[in-house]
Amino acid sequence: MKFPEHFLWGAASAAYQVEGAYNTDGKGPSIWDEFSKIPGKTKHNTNGQIAVDFYHHYKEDIVLMAEMGLKAYRFSVSWSRILPNGEGEVNQEGLDFYEKVIDELQKHQIEPILTLYHWDLPEVLQTKYGGWESRHTIDAFVEYCRILFDKFGTKVKYWITFNEQNVFTSLGYRWASHPPNVSDSKRMFQANHIVNLANAKAIQLFHQVVPQGKIGPSFGYGEVYPLTSSPADVLAAVDANQFNNDWWLDVYCRGEYLERIMRLLKQMHIAPDVTIEDKKVLQTGKPDFLGINYYHGGTVKAPDTEKVITGKNFDKIDPYLMAGDAQSNTPESQLFQSVENPYLDKTNWGWEIDPIGFRIALRQVYEKYRLPLIITENGLGAFDKLEGGQVDDQYRIDYLNDHLVQVGKAISDGVPVFGFCAWSFTDLLSWINGYDKRYGFVYIDRDDYSPKSLLRIKKKSFNWYQRIIETNGGKLEVR
């Protein structure tokens, strides 16, 4: 097990979850700024108005990144900070902020990895066009991308188009757990198609404007296992992987929709409307690499008549596995039934812990698509406790150690993984789950009810990851 010499040991975040300054220096509202106002949609009605105030603490945080020895930092740009109206006039103060962040990172020899879209669509585009249900939003996105490509194309080498398209389209348009608060499978698959077109056009433009750079989407991937060796369960697992994973990755990497799933969606009258011109566009957007966000996979058995329903529980909601919902007729009910894996433990938030599944996932993705991979998210959300001015998060160390060991083994298997961005560097707003669910190497003194001091406190895992980086993975423990 050996990591490449110039492996990008990093960490990650998203604008809405860390920046705060929601209406500062010309920033316009995003769909998350509006969605979080709906009572009961987020835990304790939390929002990102202040978040952990990276906007005003970015220098302090980057100094901590440098102390840790980070080689890369993945962050997203807030579209509505650049274009308050989603299109049209550029907000120069917004561009200046991200240029300062990029310059500060590079001053400390930290590679910036820029995510173009991490779920925070400008609210104006949602109101004016209907967001990702409109082709007008494709044009707006491409122009937004052009602004960033022109401005930062010579400074930033690695770019992410969309973060977890499978998650934000499903939770936003199918389960009404994220904005725009819609529960309609037909609309979800249509919106997803619009995003696919935007992704392809952005990549095509990037290759024209930034030929020296590298770009790709970031996908929430989890391999799905059969519960037993019964052929019916094995078939259910094949179908589940195609529905949960290949439906998106085939479009990214091959420019076409998976026939098995498309046929089913057409039979159910919920398939997206795809034109001949759309098919040509999708063929133009092959990425240079794939970003993989890995938390867990799933286990399934052959579907039966028992109804699978996932209720809304802030502590258990799982955006990484489309496991069926309360709608009357779902594709899942015809393909598979999700079950618990008897061999895996779970986090405090109900997510299965499966490090070996990480190795399986990386090998499967590479063998299918033959593109370099970067881990754009992996980490443990937990109820960290600050005691005596310290946070002993040995459980996070154990989690990351075991997952990184499997990344190392995947690399030894021949998978070209060139970086690992832990989620996350500091604690942050966990979307609908508030601030109790902590992921960071750095504790932020705030809670769901108050920003408190926003003091930055290094956790035990901070020093551990520092040693891992210093030794290029040499201090990982194979257990």
From TrEMBL:
SUPFAM superfamilies: (Trans)glycosidases
Keywords, in A-Z order: Glycosidase, Hydrolase
Enzyme Commission code: 3.2.1.86
Domain of life: Bacteria
Entries under Pfam families matching the protein: Glyco_hydro_1
Enzyme class: hydrolase
GO molecular function: 6-phospho-beta-glucosidase activity
Coiled coil: none
Positions of the catalytic residues: 377
Endoplasmic reticulum found in the keyword field: no
Entry's Gene Ontology cellular component terms: cytosol
GO biological process terms, semicolon-separated: carbohydrate catabolic process
InterPro entries per record: GH, GH_1_N_CS, Glyco_hydro_1, Glyco_hydro_1_AS
Family statement: Belongs to the glycosyl hydrolase 1 family.
Protein name: 6-phospho-beta-glucosidase
Originating species: Companilactobacillus bobalius
